[in-house]
Amino acid sequence: MKWRKLLFILFIISLTVWNGGVNAFAMNTGFSTNEMNSKDQHTFLSNINLSLISDEPQKNSIVCFDVSNSGLIAIGSETSENNFISVYAVTGEFKYGYVFNCNQSFGVQWDGINLIIYFVRSDVAALFDPKGANIELRTIEDTIDNNSYWNHVVFSKEKIVNGNRYTIKNTMGFLNFFASSYSQLIETDSDGNETIIYDFSTTQTTRTILVFIAVFIFVTFVIAIIIWQFLKAKNTGNGFSC
Q1: Mean of all residue pLDDT scores within the chain
Q2: Cα–Cα dist 188/164, whole Å
Q3: Is the pLDDT of residue 149 over 70?
Q4: For residue 15, is pLDDT > 70?
Q5: Where are the extended beta strands (E) located within the chain?
Q6: How many other CB atoms are there within 10 angstroms of residue 138's CB atom?
Q7: What is the DSSP letter of 59?
Q8: In which element (H, E) is residue 14 found?
Q9: Is residue 129 packed enough to be buried (19+ CB in 10 Å), middle (13-18) or exposed (0-12)?
Q10: What does each C-alpha distance from 34 to 38, 88, 137, 188 come to in angstroms?
């Protein structure tokens, strides 16, 4: 009887430790999610091909961001070839980052020292540790509450952490209307003092002006062609009148 009791105790201890391990690695997110099967997990991770980077990538516009309770700042950016998440200290010092493939919008959220990357079109939440190893993958349910969480939390332009307010913004005046991403991340403390942590405004303004000029020239050219065709048709019609 004693050995049965001992085995039962060992079983309970093992079960407790196993459950503790599962909870320690479970993703903490405000989304309601479902499990993803192992085959889909493998395919998804192969497609995004995420890897750790130790050198700061070239700065670009901010598409998403989040701030951890310990003061680490994750900033998402994208180029025509790759997507990047750069992790900074509040001083602006680059710590580490990730590079990955992604042909869709994405967001970021801290989960302790780990980082969750949300993929919008795929409805996937992927948890990675600071070394770039995947911890967990889950699918995000299509619900009204989840849609609200996307808009008001993940892609919020303002986040408050430890009494400080972090805001992403643009500084281009009326040209802000043409921008789909942001150029600055600003920290405002409880006394109202502002600190620019991340700044890409000069390059973004130059790019936006060039795009605006190109669009203006194109629209002007199209309008000129339409007017010319209209006048040509009008003059041709007058030639056949009696």
Answers
A1: 82
A2: 6
A3: yes
A4: no
A5: 33-35, 51-53, 64-67, 73-78, 83-88, 94-100, 106-111, 114-119, 124-128, 134-140, 158-161, 164-169, 184-188, 194-199
A6: 21
A7: P
A8: helix 2-25
A9: middle
A10: 13, 31, 9, 37
Hey, what amino acid is at 35? E
User: What are 75's strand-pairing partners?
Assistant: 65, 86
Number of CB atoms found within 10 A of residue 8's CB: 10
The CB density around residue 114, as the number of other CB atoms within 10 Å, is 18
Mean pLDDT within 142-168 = 95
Q: Is 182 helix (H, G, I), strand (E, B) or coil?
A: strand
- Residue with token string 């000069």: 202
- At residue 156, the 3 state secondary structure works out as coil
pLDDT digits (tens, 9 = 90+) for 35-68: 999 999 999 999 999 999 999 999 999 999 999 9
- The residue type found at 147 is N
Please count the CA atoms within 13 angstroms of the CA of 63 that sit on its side-chain side. Answer: 20
Over range 147-154, report the average pLDDT: 96
Pick from 70-84, 108-122, 172-186, 201-215: least confident: 201-215
pTM: 0.75
| Residue 100: both structure tokens together | 């990955």
Both tokens of residue 155?
Answer: 């892609």
Tokens 């680059």 identify what position?
A: 94
Q: What angle do CA 50, 185, 119 make, to 5 degrees?
A: 30
Strand order, beta sheet including 114-119: 33-35, 134-140, 124-128, 114-119, 106-111
**Strand 83-88, strand 114-119: pairing:** unpaired
To the nearest whole percent, how much of the chain has pLDDT over 70?
Answer: 73
